[in-house]
TrEMBL record:
Source organism (scientific name): Emiliania huxleyi (Coccolithophore)
Name of the protein in its database record: NADH dehydrogenase subunit 2
KW Ribonucleoprotein (keyword) present: no
GO biological process per UniProt: ATP synthesis coupled electron transport
Gene that encodes the chain: nad2
Domain NADH:quinone oxidoreductase/Mrp antiporter transmembrane, chain residue ranges per copy: 121-415
Spans traversing the lipid bilayer: 6-27, 34-53, 73-95, 102-118, 124-146, 158-179, 199-222, 234-254, 266-289, 296-318, 324-344, 365-388, 403-423, 444-462
Length: 478
């Protein structure tokens, strides 16, 4: 049975089960939040195990404008695995904040269901429905910390701007449909090849749709929601927003650009270059002036989104490999970074400001060294793994003779190194009374930090492991 069907069945059963237990006085002793989290983690990990043990996991096609390919199978495995890990490492944090509502895991599962359908979509209508399903869950997750007025404010801003972007997306899709008479990728691709359409109107609809996707990934100038939502949401939700949607939304954007509008490469490549370069430049400059950790991580995310857009703009097999390599490395590094942030906010201590991390190595030496290593990797300092991911994008630009764009990208990336190194300087050389003692972390968070930091270190010596995955992904992309 298709995993997406299992997800919706499990979601329905879990809702009925949890509502029954929460309304029955006899069962009030149950901690439904922890129970729901545990069930969801086991279910998602079970789907991952089923993927690896399946005899024929690839190239299964079915109706209703959804299509399962080798590349979408890889993306779905990443989605389920990292969603389960995010839930696992957030359990102790939620308990420390006395957040025990079972709705948290349900909303995570709703968003996973939407993203999973989005991953398989080969039709603009199913893409819109899937994006709205995960979007509704995201709006509620952003405001899940009900005791915080700032969380409610940022969630409301996210809802308003997200609704506006959905309108733009739907308008763009409707214009494309009015020109081509179809919403299916295969039909629109065939029409763009034979040029039997009004080019100006089709590009008009494409630009609106592309703008909405830029909003979803937080690219400049459509990033205005990202910093406030990252700061206002609770840390596990921020972690989920930074990691999980990026994988699927960029994958769907790749399908639309490389498959549907491949013949219009000149148009969308220019937009990818402009918005990608703007994202890297703005995030590099704005990140220097940040005083709060989550806002700093938000601008880091914007910068990485810009790198991915610049890589996409080359429209070659090498660019597809570079983009997928960058995404995998990005997820690994940020999983470890946000695990450190979660661990450092345990026991109700939230290290909100950068100044709170003063003299961090004296308070927890191993955690400070681990965090510093990961920040250097995010900055792209050689010879760490983040350097190789950025190097692949730069080499792709040089291969396409985009020398000026490559030089600008390297320059802005060097500027961005400043705010990563400044944070490390605060760890080791800044002494301030506002620094907070950080003790031992929960076992799940310790395991996550150790696992992904070790992975980032090992893959530095054996990058061929990721390269083999990206080769398969790029080869069977269509």
């Amino acid at each position: 049975m298709l995993p997406e069907i299992l997800v919706f069945l499990f979601l329905t059963i879990q809702i009925i089960y949890l509502v029954f237990f929460s309304n029955h006085l006899f069962f009030n002793y149950l901690n439904l939040g922890t129970l729901a989290n545990s069930l969801t983690v086991c279910f998602l990990l079970g789907l991952c195990i089923n993927f690896f043990s399946s005899a024929d996991p690839f190239f299964q096609s079915f109706n209703w404008n959804l299509n399962l390919t080798c590349s979408s199978t890889f993306a779905r495995a990443f989605l389920f695995f990292f969603s389960a890990l995010t839930l696992l490492v957030s359990t102790d944090y939620l308990a420390s904040k006395n957040i025990r509502q079972y709705e948290y895991s349900l909303l995570i599962l709703f968003s996973v269901a939407g993203l999973s359908v989005l991953n398989l979509s080969t039709d603009f209508l199913s893409i819109f429905v899937a994006l709205e399903l995960q979007g509704l869950a995201f709006y509620l997750l952003a405001t899940f910390y009900w005791n915080s007025n700032f969380s409610a404010e940022s969630g409301l801003k996210y809802f308003v701007l997200g609704s506006f972007s959905s309108c733009i997306l739907l308008f763009g899709f409707s214009v494309i449909y009015s020109i081509t008479g179809s919403t299916t990728f295969e039909v629109i691709q065939a029409l763009t090849i034979v040029k039997t359409y009004n080019f100006d109107f089709l590009m008009f609809g494409f630009i609106f749709s592309f703008t909405a996707f830029l909003f979803k990934v937080g690219a400049v100038p459509f990033h205005m929601w990202l910093c406030d939502v990252y700061e206002g949401a609770i840390s596990p939700v921020t972690m989920f927003f930074a990691l999980i949607p990026k994988i699927i939304i960029f994958y769907v954007l790749l399908k639309i650009l490389f498959c549907v509008f491949a013949s219009e490469y000149v148009v969308w490549s220019f937009f990818c270059q402009i918005f990608g370069l703007l994202s890297i430049f703005f995030a590099s400059i704005a990140g220097i002036f940040q005083k709060k950790l989550k806002r700093l991580m938000a601008f880091s995310t914007i910068s990485h989104s810009g790198f991915i857009l610049v890589g996409i703009s080359c429209f070659t097999f090498l660019s597809l490999k570079a983009t997928s390599f960058y995404l995998i490395v990005y997820v690994f590094m940020n999983m470890a970074v946000f695990s450190v942030i979660l661990g450092s906010t345990f026991h109700s201590y939230f290290l909100k400001y950068l100044i709170n991390w003063s003299y961090f190595y004296h308070r927890n030496f191993i955690l400070a060294m681990t965090f510093s290593f990961l920040l250097l990797a995010l900055a792209g300092i050689p010879p760490l793994l983040g350097f190789f991911s950025k190097l692949m994008v730069i080499l792709t630009l040089i291969d396409q003779s985009e020398i000026v764009l490559a030089l600008l990208t390297v320059t802005f990336s060097c500027i961005a190194c400043y705010y990563y190194i400044r944070l490390i300087k605060i760890f080791f050389f800044s002494v301030n009374e506002k620094g907070v003692w950080v003790s031992m972390q929960p076992r799940a968070i310790e395991l996550s930090i150790a696992t992904f930091t070790t992975l980032v270190s090992i893959l530095l010596a054996f990058p061929d492991v990721i390269m083999n995955v990206t080769n398969v992904f790029a080869t069977f992309f269509v």
